[in-house]
Amino acid sequence: MTLSTPAPIHPGHELRDSALRQLDSAARALNLDPGMHKFLSTPERTLIVSVPVMLEDGQLEVYTGYRVQHSTGRGPGKGGIRFHPGVTLEEVEGLAMLMTWKCAVTDLPLGGAKGGVAVDPHRLTRRQVERLTKRYTAAILPIIGPERDIPAPDVNTDESTMAWIVDTVTMMTGQHSPEVVTGKPIELGGSRGRTEATGRGVAFVTLEALKRAGRLPENTRVAVQGFGNVGSVTAKGLAEAGCKIVAVSDVSGGYAAPYGIDIPGAIEHVRRHPKRMLEGLPGLSKISNAELIAMDVDVLVPAALEGQITSANVHEVRAKIIVEGANGPITADADRKLADRGVVIMPDILANAGGVVVSYFEWVQSRAQFYWELDEVERRLEIYMRRASDLVLAKTKVYDCTPREAAFIVAVERVASAIEKRGIFP
Ligand code: NAD
User: Fold this and answer.
1) What domains lie within the chain, and their CATH numbers?
2) SS3 at position 373
3) pTM of this prediction?
4) Which residues have a catalytic role annotated?
């Protein structure tokens, strides 16, 4: 059987080039040593592996897998594994670099890594995906491990994938190894609060941006695009803090209420909906996703997809603060225009880092074999997210730059300083 490979959504080299441009701009602001700049521009280690999988009809299919460690200057590599036909080496390199900055901006003692297999898992049976995962894990085993590089779920991988990785490492090393990955099922050492971590983190970052702008949550109107894992939890957290969530949306469209939407009710509606959608939510006006982006609100949280605010619709955006729940929801063009208008954009590498922060907590718990209660996880997550946001916003004053530039400056400075202090081996 030959599987066709659809074109990637985003050519991987574009993603890597954009990560490199952001590094270049931080390096200029920091007056970074050219040698260090060069070191940080290239991954420390790249492994490309062949992943053969025997299909049920006795035919052999072979996929290409990658694991890239961009930097282990501050600690073991950390980053997800994606299964997608569009996975390329360039994409994995770019994503690994972004993980370095994401871990550094939140001050986790971890480096950046990423992995992937160029495969469409929807064309395989569950048993075949399990075999693929186990073979890929065996192939990258020489470079992963709790003190080397700790994978996690990403596009088309989940807690079952992580459980298969734990099994493979345990069988191959003879040692029970839950700490080799994060995003595991709770029964196998997963952390409480991991599923909600990204959305809760987005809410904390939003509250910190409001505090800095001198705004009270009670007087803040928010629109959230996307009502999945990230969007719904963000909306819930902000509503609990007193904000008025005046619009939400998902693939079925947007829903607005000028006096605020009952978010727990909306979450319950989605949970009961056969397709897990907002469709049919009673008592609200129906709007389009385009109208949601153009709403007269104080805060806009794009938490659905990349590339939602572009040069085509940026002039319609009226929010004063945008918090990037999704990865890359604003194109570079639109980002410049919004910055020129003084819109505060809390960037994705900071705003949606709550997931990796709780992944770090999971790693700590698995290593200690001692598991925290949910309130402990949430309390510590809030400390990490608020502290990182506060520092990034303070740096915008020092460097006269946007929060996005400041987040990269904080991250690059931390990584470069750790490497400098260690000294270049030998
Ligand atoms: P999800 O699949 O749970 O939810 C996505 C939501 O977006 C759904 O409600 C979907 O209906 C909606 N949506 C899709 N297309 C839309 C459109 N055109 N207009 C409006 N809504 C649309 O996904 P998620 O886990 O919430 O992730 C959302 C974003 O956050 C992605 O960019 C993801 O990469 C990023 N992210 C997620 C995590 C995490 O821990 N889940 C961490 C970091 C970043």
Assistant:
1) 42-176 (3.40.50.10860), 197-351 (3.40.50.720)
2) coil
3) 0.95
4) 114
